[in-house]
């Protein structure tokens, strides 16, 4: 593991990162390699175009939105730390780790996936962000329409789209303000087994 | 053929079972006429004339990506699973014989083991036949199917080894022989695969050079495929593995090299051969039964065999899955395992092997033949018929828990897409490093070697997409011009920007039928039968969707979602079907998504660019008038000067070149239109 150590030493604040996200050194190295591969100009930051170079993402209907999720509002670039932090949300919840009450709760536990406020970067928050592009804390009908449009095939006509959007809002909207707030969003996802879906197994 | 007419019958009873029934009837007729069975399924006919086509078909249509990404699990099941089955069945039977359950038969441990090995193998023909009716998720399917194909390596070795042992006699066996046996496994398996790969290379090379004799190209595929089978058989290697790998490895290259019509020919002929062979195999399996000469009944033997193969298969699968799930990305669920165990059908291969036994060495050959036949009938018919109800029952049990709301459905899909995207971003897909290496190697060397130059060029995916985008835009551009009148078009520079987005959507909604209308009423069925392979994510589904809900807006919305949500990359279905050739819907979907993404990126890029330098437009147009179409493979020398981002990423290059190309196209069309109007004018004079 000599190469791991040498790579690790290149990354600043690596200990803190590992603690916070729960990645093992091997994971961090792997992600660092990936980061460097994406960052073709070696600036230490990723920009939207770098993500755009991943061909497969272009084949994903919400690929561009997900790229956007990596960039906090106002930020033009992503550094390695933010990169890893966001990816940490998708690690499988590590059941085997002993509960150490003194440690800050790792980023990807079930509660953090569901908890509000948005300052705590939670998984549902990530999903919510995908919809809510103008960051007003609500998914308006127009935003929902946009997402639906991108996820449905071209064959679907505008009226059909709108009817789906209407019904969806009807189902989820509890306070009848014709928009889905974060709470309503969260409630509507109670039945979905998020843990199972969202966790990607990272290479050992 | 006849059964296709009566689809409702085949949805209950699998085609193979019906064919066996027909075989029985025919056999009865023949026997009644001749008082002896003149037609039986002889091993020679089976192994040399009937089986190769089926396997070649399986290999050629194999979904490679799926196959290789699950290769580890498939190998585990095929090798270890088959060995386990063989050993347990053989030993179990031997134990029971020692215990006296079978009465007095002239048989020994080795013969039991041999019998175990030939009855242990899951049969590809039977698996396809049954799984065709039952739609299971692709991972499950590829597991069972891949296992059935690859276990031939093991079966052949075990069979030959035990055959040799029986010839030697029990006393001669020592460690050396056993080690020789193990080594022979590796030799046979890898040797067979190697032969297959060599022939695949040969075929690919051949198709590379056959530009002038396209009409007989398909013939070569079949001949060489069959040759690979024969060669392996000749060298005492695993012939099935050989032909499977031949099909798997060559499909990509011959599809790229050959003319479209040849490709279509190959596909259809393969299906014809495979279907035909399968039909004949099953009919003969039926006919062979009606022959009192071979029937020996031994209750203990037969019943115990049935019991053991069933039980030990379950145990084997569950055990192996439990081990495998520790290493797998997506664990195999309980239901999948049940289906896998239940789907371990034995078929004609077992019968062929047992018929090959030498009667002098195996005094109880007829008993084994009878048992094998009964086992085959049991698995194919009983398990085949009950497979579907079992699946329904299990699935109903699972699905009864949740009926998702619209929001949940959308979310589910969103999450799936998110998952795929994050995987792509973080570059994690299984053994990524190796796969990248292999991919690079393959791109650089193999494609250069095995594919025609013209085929190679058109393989560049992005270029293809852009090319199509260009063409589409150009077409709509011209149409727009025609609509407005060509002169107006030429005059008005600013109006030349067609609203592509609107055009795109408008043309599509015109063409596609209004699905809302079709949803009303009982003739909804045609729609769902056309869109057959709409299946929700990882679960077991039925062939016909059971529509009990009447028209309501709610239902329509759900249905729309069900049918039209883009399926994530992970869920792309690879249906292997004997009688249906799939048009690759998934590829269209991926292309569509890709085009839309590129288009939207282009729009935003264009708007950014327009904002930066609108005045430059006219200049660039004239400059680029005679620039040839760019190959956006990174060697475009045109690094745009007024690039807002200023970097040299390939994507931005593509965008710029696309833009310039379109401007060039614009100029060309203007030229053409001017010429055309000039000609018009002249003609009118």
From TrEMBL, chain A:
Pfam families from the UniProt entry: EF-hand_7
List keywords of the entry alphabetically. Calcium, Cell membrane, Cytoplasm, Lipoprotein, Membrane, Metal-binding, Myristate, Nucleus, Phosphoprotein, Protein transport, Repeat, Transport
Superkingdom of origin organism: Eukaryota
Identification of the protein by name: Calcineurin-like EF-hand protein 2
Give the UniProt subcellular location, in the record's own words: Cell membrane; Cytoplasm; Nucleus
Q: Which sequence ranges are marked TM in the entry?
A: none
User: Major location, coarse class?
Assistant: membrane
Q: GO molecular-function annotation terms?
A: calcium ion binding
Question: Which Gene3D superfamilies does the entry link to?
Answer: EF-hand
Q: Which gene encodes it?
A: chp2
Recorded source organism is Oncorhynchus mykiss
Q: Where is the EF-hand domain?
A: 127-154, 160-195
Tell me the protein family, please: Belongs to the calcineurin regulatory subunit family. CHP subfamily.
What InterPro entries does UniProt report for this protein, alphabetically?
A: Calcineurin_B_homologous, EF-hand-dom_pair, EF_Hand_1_Ca_BS, EF_hand_dom
The GO biological-process annotations, alphabetized, read as:
protein transport
Q: Does the keyword Zinc apply?
A: no
Q: According to its record, what are the GO cellular component terms?
A: cytoplasm; nucleus; plasma membrane
TrEMBL record, chain B:
According to the record, the residues making up region (Disordered) are 609-644
Q: Which domain of life is it from?
A: Eukaryota
Q: Can the keyword Ion transport be found in this entry's annotation?
A: yes
Gene Ontology cellular component annotations, sorted alphabetically: brush border membrane; early endosome membrane; recycling endosome membrane
**Where, subcellularly, is it found?**
Apical cell membrane; Early endosome membrane; Recycling endosome membrane
* Membrane topology listed for this record: Multi-pass membrane protein
Catalytic function, reaction form: Na(+)(in) + H(+)(out) = Na(+)(out) + H(+)(in)
Q: Which UniProt keywords apply?
A: Antiport, Cell membrane, Endosome, Ion transport, Membrane, Phosphoprotein, Signal, Sodium, Sodium transport, Transmembrane, Transmembrane helix, Transport
Q: One GO BP annotation here?
A: regulation of intracellular pH
Q: Where is the composition biased (Basic residues)?
A: 618-627
Q: Where are the transmembrane segments?
A: 12-33, 45-62, 74-100, 112-132, 139-162, 182-203, 215-232, 268-290, 296-322, 367-385
Q: Where is the Cation/H+ exchanger transmembrane domain?
A: 13-393
Check the record and name the InterPro entries matching this protein.
Answer: Cation/H_exchanger_CPA1, Cation/H_exchanger_TM, Na/H_exchanger_3/5, NaH_exchanger
Described by its record, this protein's role is as follows: Plasma membrane Na(+)/H(+) antiporter. Exchanges intracellular H(+) ions for extracellular Na(+) in 1:1 stoichiometry, playing a key role in salt and fluid absorption and pH homeostasis. Major apical Na(+)/H(+) exchanger in kidney and intestine playing an important role in renal and intestine Na(+) absorption and blood pressure regulation.
User: Would you tell me the protein name for this molecule?
Assistant: Sodium/hydrogen exchanger
Record GO terms (molecular function): potassium:proton antiporter activity; sodium:proton antiporter activity
Name the protein family: Belongs to the monovalent cation:proton antiporter 1 (CPA1) transporter (TC 2.A.36) family.
